[in-house]
Amino acid sequence: MTPEGLAELVDAAVASLVDSGRVSISNPQPARVERPRNPEHGDYTTNVAMVLAKAAGRKPRDLAALLQEQLQDSPQIAAVSVAGPGFINITLVSAAAAETARTIVQAAEKYGHSDRLSETSINVEFISANPTGPLHLGHTRWAAVGDALARVLQAAGARVTREFYVNDRGSQMDDFGRSIAAVAAGESPPESGYHGGYITDLAAQVLAEHPEYQSLTGEDRMRAFREAGYALQLAQQQSVLDLFRTHFDVWYSERSLHDSGAVERGMTQLREQGHVYEKDGAVWLRTTDFGDDKDRVLVKADGELTYFASDTAYYINKRDRGFDICIYLLGADHHGYVGRLRAVAACAGDDMQTNIEIPIGQLVNMLKDGVPVKQSKRAGNIVTLEDLVDEVGVDAARYSLIRYPVDSPLTLDLDLLTKRSNDNPVYYVQYAHARISSVLRNAEGLGIDFEAQTFAPELLSHEREARLLGALAEFPGVVASAAELREPHRVARYLEELATNYHKFYDACRVLPKGDDPVEPINIARLWLCAATRQVIANGLDLCGVAAPDRM
Fold first, then answer.
1. CB contact at 8 A, 501 and 475
2. Cα-flanking dihedrals φ and ψ of residue 410, to 5°?
3. Do strands 159-166 and 121-125 pair parallel, antiparallel, or not at all (unpaired)?
4. How many domains in the chain?
5. Distance of alpha carbon 251 from the chain centroid
6. Are residues 378 and 481 in the same domain?
7. Are residues 253 and 130 in the same domain?
């Protein structure tokens, strides 16, 4: 039985008390059950009696005692007790707990999915890099975390759009064009330009495709090299993200906001909301009304639009496209954007507590041979996404970036991530999947088709079997909380605990018959448990965008 199934039993017990007139509660809040910290307290615990006590006009322990009477008659429950101020601790009969294995195998890749966010449309914008250079290590963290977040939101039923905002407008693009043009002419890039070795490569590619650009001069030359270099660099970013298993539904050009009139429409909407004013010849947005530290300029006194004007138009554009929630995943150097973007939502008439979310990701550093790997984009000495993948592979890179909360700085030890040992977290989890796959292959080699045999769940009564079953039952709740809290690292950490539970089970409980011993019902039951564990590990790794190998 899953926690969701048990919660339904508890809700039914509450409904029975209400229907019988023993308790009066109007629209009782659904129960939540969870695993207790101390296994001696049972398989699950719920605080439903404390939550509903006030509405019922009862003391929490008295209401808990009434629910205890209702629940202990269930054939799926072995014991119910009331503890503390009104907690209800529940122990399932072994057969009911073990039915989780059958549920998982039958649900397959859908196990862990729910419809909790089925009415919600979410735009997840992440990376949002300038198309003026390779994606660096900071982008790489969001490439992994942003994609994993989108995956867990989809697993929770949300309609999700992954969006890459292409910063293809502004002075940095002109500097980019001048840098490529200079190198193509055998000169050094301007001081304000880009100096990485990739600029030399781009210049060679542009000249190979457009030798006629060499005869251009002035601004025509800059624009020609800028546009050709832009196309090549954006294609390179798209290619490396495909390699990294991060795929975007929308590549949204900042230029298109201006070309389509979206910026003007956005300012009109904000003006109609009463938050736009003029001062010193400039046009301002009164963001201080909603907690920003200062008002923001939309149009300078000389008539030039600010970058903030694009930001406001972009948010309004997203809402016009029908997204209920706009999530912006920003780097540590954009912390100052949080207040102003939230204020934009409020100025547009939205709820800045619900319609916009802005997680900030902290810096990522790398160690190799115990020495920090330096990075500097303008100097060209950068650590790129490709560099990380070349060093440790896609799986190790993605998993290691996902398994930590994004609001904490992260240092990746490249030597650890290439080790084939239990010290390497991704290896540890993938090895558990491969180990179970080997067990199931060996069973097939012995002619055992466990799914065609009678599954006797009541036989899975060993302590290690119970622990593993309990961990498997937690997976849907882990996915749901990862989605609701926007914390995909919860899935990765869960997988590591699940792998530990499996290894302990395997060491304590023999799965396949020994030598010429006959196949017993306990062997079949444990193979079901193995298959269920493998399925959950595969499902969890998929939410991280990490492969689940059958052999290692």
1. no
2. -135, 130
3. parallel
4. 3
5. 19
6. no
7. yes
- To 10 degrees, the CA torsion angle through 272, 277, 282, 283? -20
| Residue 354 counted as domain residue | no
pLDDT digits (tens, 9 = 90+) for 359-416: 999 989 889 999 988 754 434 567 888 889 999 999 999 999 999 999 999 999 999 9
Q: Are residues 38 and 138 in the same domain?
A: no
State which amino acid sits at residue 344: V
171 to each of 136, 178, 194, 221, 289, how far by Cα in Å? Answer: 20, 11, 12, 16, 31
The whole-angstrom separation of Cα 180 and Cα 173 is 11
Distance CA 232, CA 226 (A): 10
What would the two tokens of residue 156 be? 């929770």
Q: Distance between CA atoms of 255 and 170, rounded to whole angstroms?
A: 9
Say yes or no: 7 and 69 in one domain.
yes
Residue where a domain terminates, one of 420, 448, 468:
420
The rounded distance, in Å, linking the Cα atoms of 435 and 58 is 52
Helix, strand or coil, per DSSP, at residue 452: helix
Count CB atoms within 10 A of the CB of residue 369: 8
- Give the range of the structural domain holding residue 528, as residue numbers without chain letter: 424-544
pLDDT score, position 373: 84
Tell me, yes or no, whether 150 and 244 share the same domain: yes
Round the CA-based radius of gyration of the chain to a whole number and report it.
29
Quick: pLDDT tens for 183-214: 999 999 999 999 888 999 999 999 999 999 99
Q: Specify the length of the chain in residues.
A: 552
Question: How many whole angstroms separate alpha carbon 165 and alpha carbon 234?
Answer: 12
Phi, psi for 166 (deg, rounded to 5): -90, 115
Q: Residue 53 domain-assigned?
A: yes
Q: Which residues of 462-486 are buried (b: 16+ CB within 10 A; e: fewer)?
A: eebbbbbbbbbbbbbbbbbbbbeeb
Rounded to whole angstroms, how far apart are CA atoms 17 and 70?
Answer: 8
**pLDDT of 383:** 83
List helix spans (H) across 354-424: 385-392, 394-402, 414-417
In a domain, 277, yes or no: no
Of 270, 265, 268, residue with least CA distance to 285: 270
| Collapsed DSSP state (helix, strand, coil) of residue 250 | strand
Check which CATH number belongs to the domain holding 49 and give it: 3.30.1360.70
Shared domain check, 416 and 443 = no
Written as one string, the DSSP assignment of 27-43 is SPPPP-EE--SSGGG-S
**What's the token pair of residue 363?**
């810096």
Looking at the fold, whether 444 and 408 belong to one and the same domain comes out as no
What's the CATH number where 413 sits?
3.40.50.620
